[in-house]
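Table S2 (continued). Query chain:
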Amino acid sequence: MPRWVAVWGVLAASASAVGPLAAGPAAADPAPVDSVSVDSVSVDSVRVDSVRVDSARVESARVTPFRTAPGGDARRWAVDAVNAPAAWRVTRGSGVTVAVLGADRPDENVPELRGRVTQGPDMTGLDRADGAFGDGPTGRAGTAIASLIAGGGRGGEISGVAPEASVLVIPVVERGTGQPSGGAFVEPDPGPGLLGDTPFARGIRYAANQGASVICLPASHYGVSRAEREAVSYALSRGVVLVASVGDGGQSEYARQNGTSYWRFPAGYPGVVGVAAVDRQGRKTPDSSDNLSVLVAAPGADVPVAVPGGGHGTASGTGVAGAIVAGAAALIKAKYPDMAPELVARALTSTSRPHPSPGYDDKVGFGVVDAAAALAKAGELSGYARTVPVQDGAHFGGGPLSGAPARPGPDPVRLWVYGIAAALGAVGFGIAVSALARR
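Corresponding output:
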């Protein structure tokens, strides 16, 4: 059995058995949601250092430094690290929509995103009463994530991994609280009765119904929700690839004591591509969570991004890494729009590099994503979706065909036996009655 299949099965089995891990105390593992921090922001020649946004940040595999492509821009090192420029010879993501479910909206007027952003409804219920979309505040986290997915990359702009893709923005986290629905936890299933809804579940279903090919989930939370599980299953059934950050709990007290991190969701649900963060040396970042929800990794430390107002800064965290992987998935869906999500995940995992020595570990998964290699692998896997028609009379071996099954109903032989027995019984009963009458 291929190793990726075994681990994918482990992920699916483990996700259903993480109840105790899903309800850890907030004090033991701080709950950053958008998994993004913005540092060294330069806007209009004003330099602001150590600015944190909505929480996040961004520990260690093999030391293989990423290098900027010859003649490339240092601001594009993360894109070069996942080999996106080589993939652009095949596709740049045109025609694909990536839905981003986070805390705030990007500044759609920055040069990198102009004409690429569609505003969706605020699933937290904080939009205007008249139903208009897009009136929520813009933020550094949203702008950073969107620029890493679909930044245009023209004339010194930040380039995203899929520079011709479109972004659909759907807030699912209350800005300021940094939590879905204003709380640190999503309550476990209440048991039989009405199915509770969550902003994440509503956002995933909305994105799938609006034709998104990829859903990027930089926000995360503790706790398993039946509504979210069903929303994830719904999106997967419609061919949507879901990419989620695994969270930034790598330095929590629980992680230091136990050598593993609490699971966060949606990354922990089966079928979701969980993404960890690595630095420019290819090592897992200290804050990146490590558990079996990690499938792949991507750059997530001091990654150049666009910021509101048209400036450039750097961002860190597993949310940043998740945006890069979402861009790689968008390239695959642009070239192979009908490819099933599980095959997209296989293309990403089987070509990631460098693989940890065991093939997989819970820090970087199968390794750092290689967008060009994944796109090439997807070409091989695309044949898996085609089926070969089978002749009705075909069968294995050279022996005779087995007979058709007997039609359901009573057995004629038994009917005759029972009928004769009944007739004989009736005749015997009549003879006995006649004999008694003569006496």
